[in-house]
Amino acid sequence: MAENGIGASVKRKEDNRFLTGKGNYTDDINRPGQTYAVLVRSPHAHATINSIDTSAAKAAPGVVGVFVGQDLVDDGIGGLICGMAVAGKGGEVAKMPPRNVLTIDKARFVGDPVAVVIAETLAQAKDGAELVDVDYSELPSVVSTSGADKPGAPLLHEEVPDNLTLDWEFGDAAAVDAAFASAHKVTEIELVNNRMVTNPMEPRAAIGEYNSGTDETTLYLTSQNPHVHRLVMAAFMNIAPEHKFRVVSPDVGGGFGSKIFTYNEEAVCAWAAKKLNRPVKWTCDRTEAFLCDAHGRDHVTKAEMALDENGKFLALRVTSHSNMGAYLQLFSVSISTLF
């Protein structure tokens, strides 16, 4: 290996700080006058939200604010977006159903946030969240990737018939079909690439802080992509004008891709900090991380290989169903079309 320039070993500078407990992660940060947020989440995979009664939570000790999805909509806050418009068969672009920061009409996965309670202490916020009374009507749900687009399967979004956001293909279908028709042997395999929770050592966290003197918002969060967080939340979600919106990502304790995306809780903290004129902090617990972090994989695939009499590969045909989850994340569709 070269001693200088390209290929040279670069000495790590951060190890002593981390190994002696002097790292600075988002949850280590506390701001003056800070409050704490707890999200109220759906216990159902699929359910209509008939009503949300927040009166008891608002009267609970230490609670300074209780908000539902309509509160953000009324303030002009936009929903989370998918930023990759991939085209499929016939040039049709992927269907991208809307996603409010706090869901309003119905819950679409276990853990879908429906309300937020903000209080002086984390314990008070948790107690207040237990007092939010949500009336649900449970709906049928699908728990298998291979069954989601079957005829008669429960529909998650009215805007997405057959639960199919994109039908995508790559290659020369006619040539592949011809190769298979003339093949000496065809072999096939069916594969399930199981769903994966990234589970980084440091759960996600966010702190929103608003300066009323300068009309500036600062968001501290554990992020692999702070510049994109700032762009998306300013330009598409209307959290704050970009020139008055600062995103700070301190030390990050692992991400593995899941901290690239823009999440509900971060938007809630930034918006509520201005609404209450006080810093708002949220730290994900491990259960929330399993429910609400962006998951990976979950492909059900059938692969076929056409060979001639000498074992030479003639063509490969792969049909794969990729689970996008209940909503599209920032880069969801593009990730599944990379293979």
DSSP helical segment count: 9
Which range does the strand content fall in? 25-35%
Biggest β-sheet, characterized? Answer: 7 strands, mixed
Subunit organisation of the chains: single chain
Question: Which CATH class of the domain at 30-142 and 198-292?
Answer: Alpha Beta
The residue ranges in which pLDDT falls below 50 over 5 or more consecutive positions are none
Q: What is the 3D shape?
A: globular
The side-by-side strand order for the widest beta sheet comes to 3-5-1-11-8-9-10
CATH topology of the domain at 30-142 and 198-292: Aldehyde Oxidoreductase, domain 3
Number of strands: 13
Judging by the overall fold, what is the CATH architecture of the domain at 30-142 and 198-292? Alpha-Beta Complex
The CATH superfamily of the domain at 30-142 and 198-292 is Aldehyde oxidase/xanthine dehydrogenase, a/b hammerhead
How confident overall, as mean pLDDT? 95
Name the helicity range: 10-25%
Class from secondary-structure proportions: alpha+beta
What value does the Rg take, in angstroms?
A: 23 Å
Can you write the helix and strand succession as a string?
HEEHEHEEHEHEEEHEHEHEEH
Distance between the termini: 32 Å
Short structural summary:
The chain has a domain at 30-142 and 198-292: Aldehyde oxidase/xanthine dehydrogenase, a/b hammerhead (Aldehyde Oxidoreductase, domain 3, Alpha-Beta Complex).
Describe what you observe in this structure:
With 339 residues, this protein is α+β, with helices and mostly antiparallel strands. It has a domain at 30-142 and 198-292: Aldehyde Oxidoreductase, domain 3 (Alpha-Beta Complex), CATH 3.90.1170. The protein has helices at residues 15-19, 55-58, 69-74, 122-130, 173-181, 226-235, 264-276, 286-292, 332-336, and strands spanning 35-41, 47-53, 63-68, 106-107, 113-119, 133-138, 185-196, 205-211, 216-221, 245-248, 280-283, 296-307, 313-322. A seven-stranded mixed β-sheet has the order 3-5-1-11-8-9-10, sandwiched between helices. Strands 4-2-6 form a three-stranded antiparallel β-sheet. A hairpin with a 4-residue loop joins strand 8 and strand 9 (216-221). The protein is globular. The mean pLDDT is 95.
